[in-house]
Write a structure and sequence with these properties.
- It is built from 18 helices and four strands.
- It is α/β, with parallel strands linked by helices and about 400 residues long.
- The protein has two domains: about 270 residues, no CATH class; about 100 residues, no CATH class.
- The chain is globular.
Amino acid sequence: MPVHLLVLAMHLTLAWLIFAAMKELRLTTLEAAIGSCYMLICEINVMAVSSNDTMSQVLSGLAGCCSLWSYYRASDDSRTSRARTMWYCTSIVAFSIAVLAKESGMSFLAAIIVLASCLRPSRRLTGIWKRALSMVPYLIIAIAYYVVHVTLITRGLAERYDIVIGLNILKNMVFVLTGALLSASTVDVLQSYLRAEYVFPAIVFASTLTFTVIILKGLRKAGRTGLSIMIFILALASVSPFLITMHVSELYVYAAMPFVSILVGIGVGSFIETFQNNKLSLGAVIVFLAATAASHTIAVIEKDNRMDRNGREAELLLNQIVPLVSKVPPNGFLYLVNTSDNRSNYSVFVMGEFNVLSYGLNRIQELSGREDIQPRILQQIDLPEFTACNNCAVLTIRDGKVSLVRAP
């Protein structure tokens, strides 16, 4: 519970930072409030904010955004030299925290480079040599992290993240942007689609398209084209390392959400202001936006409930599995074989049978005191291959009941 409260506090702090940044960028209070609130309630953030082991992602996102904002303030020519130095050092420290918290924090190096390139000429740190020199500490930190963490600990990135350069980049960009703007639970939309129930997904995508049109029309009316383009590029830069992987998790969309929220705030706030003299149209827009906010709130609650349910099911399975670990020979394998089709599984929200243990197989070792064994989750199609092994035990599951089907 204290960890969840800490993560929630960091999420609230990031939402406040969005509000403060938008106000300093001379955006209206309405736009800043909408942007901040969207960051708070967007359903795509649930995996990062509510999972048991994702505090590092939220911390990395918060620290990365603090680094960007501090760098922006360090470039403000109206501040004293001492104040600019303080903000610049704060930016470097915050970037270090972002990177150390999680490797995805490396994406903020690209974001800071984008920001430095987009600063207007009247601000400090904009001369070509000053820009280049200001990037040196960030590059040193990034290179040092890569050398120590990747080459010595993870032994390379390509194998770990399945890096590919191809159409997957476009697919991942679409996933990030769609997930960030989708007006209902990604889980419900996917599950309905897999059940061939297309009405609900069609309604959701129509609503999302309407919401997107509102944002784009509002951004056009706001007249902050340069700022909007820069924020959009920052959103992509913040997830750039994962655009070249074969799959982008909802977890990593969190890094882009502060920038998407700013665009939502500018677009929606500006769009609302166009109907100040048309009460009927204004009322219709507010009703639609209220429905969208309610949909996100319901999706957040529903996703949280799914995760809690998965956790309870995992606990029940562990209680059945641990007593059977004694059947595994020393340094042997424990194969947990799913007996049902699990193609409908999605992230940490829909996890059938043994899959609820996917992120906690080490708990079997801890609870049984058997650090020597290696638990693995398999599908039933693989069962014949492993029932003949000499150094393993095989467990299956049906209707929540675990059975031992093979032991040496």
